[in-house]
Design brief:
With about 300 residues, the chain is of the alpha/beta class. The chain has helices at about 15-25, 40-45, 60-65, 85-90, 105-120, 140-155, 165-170, 180-185, 205-210, 230-240, 255-260, 275-295, and strands spanning about 1-5, 30-35, 50-55, 70-75, 95, 135-140, 155-160, 175, 190-195, 220, 245, 265.
């Protein structure tokens, strides 16, 4: 089978080497498409691919239409909203992610962003400590649990909510279960978001929730920018000069927010939650192993378009 590794942001060289070794040892051909300039380049490269490994690359209906042999797409990472699941499902293509492989990298970044904002972005201004503060975690999956464990090690009180987990499971994971979303935001000196961008979550976090947060609170978003109602965020920051926002994916209105609110708003220059050498390698190798298992035994355990 021909496996296309399509990455505008390439894997580390050691990851590419490992991916190639795993796939070639199983008898597959590996083709690299790195740092490509146009979406049409991906469409052309996919024309004879049986499988694809991607990172943040967009697998659109056009890409899928151009790839008649394509049987599976593996997103090296947790999020998969860059793949058109409906178009893939219509063609019988199995889409998988690699959950947990980037989790520690994202969790460390979330903690780092809390400290960065608490210390006023490392300017000489007087900051605050996160010890003794309450952290609310929205979604208690692989990343959320790691954030909670690291926060507790730093002396924070941790609360969490997850629509897919009963309160008992959250408690077993080391966090106090929040009564509901309002409770999470109303009691969180920091709230860390780890939800996917779905029709149910897009623009779900905005003015009403932010206005419930305690004085001096900070919202940390290492998930997706689409889950934030940016107009509501701007309004809340305007009415509450004590609130802060930090994100690993810049909101569309970042320039306006920074001009208005200065050091109360921060966004990384590009999404960097998974940008560690360890996460880069882990996700890439996991994707390669999943493709091998898919073709050898039909393993679809990480399928996301069921």
């Amino acid at each position: 089978m021909k496996v296309l590794v399509a990455t505008q942001k390439p894997f580390a060289a050691v990851a590419v080497k490992g991916i190639r070794e795993i796939l070639e040892a199983a008898g597959h051909e590996v083709v690299l498409l790195e740092k490509y300039a146009e979406q049409s380049d991906l469409e052309k490269a996919a024309a004879d691919a049986d499988a694809m490994i991607i990172r943040s690359d967009k697998v659109t209906p056009e890409v899928i239409a151009a790839a008649p042999r394509l049987k599976t797409v593996v997103r090296a990472g947790a999020g998969y909203d860059n793949v058109d699941l409906d178009a893939a499902t219509a063609k019988g293509i199995v889409v998988m992610n690699t959950p947990g492989q980037n989790a520690n990298a994202v969790a460390e970044l979330a903690i780092a962003m809390m400290i960065y904002m608490a210390r006023t972005q490392f300017t000489p201004a007087t900051g605050s400590e996160i010890q003794g503060k309450t952290l609310g975690i929205q979604a208690f999956g692989n990343v959320g649990r790691l954030v909670g464990a690291k926060a507790k090690a730093l002396g924070m009180k941790v609360k969490a909510i997850d629509p897919f987990l009963p309160a008992q499971k959250i408690a077993e994971g080391g966090a106090e279960p929040a009564k509901d979303l309002d409770d999470l935001y109303a009691t969180g000196d920091y709230v860390s978001i780890h939800i996917p961008a779905t029709p149910q979550t897009i623009h779900s976090i905005g003015y009403d929730l932010l206005m419930k947060m305690p004085k001096g609170a900070t919202l940390i978003n290492t998930a997706r920018k689409e889950v934030i109602d940016e107009a509501g965020l701007e309004k809340a920051l305007e009415e509450r000069p004590d609130l802060k926002y930090a994100a690993d994916v810049a909101p569309d209105n970042l320039a306006a927010l920074q001009e208005k609110f200065g050091l109360r708003v921060f966004a990384t220059p590009k999404k960097m939650g998974a940008q560690t050498s360890e996460a880069n390698i882990n996700a890439g190798l996991a994707a390669a192993r999943q493709i091998v298992a898919f073709f050898e035994s039909g393993d679809k355990r990480f399928q996301v378009n069921k």
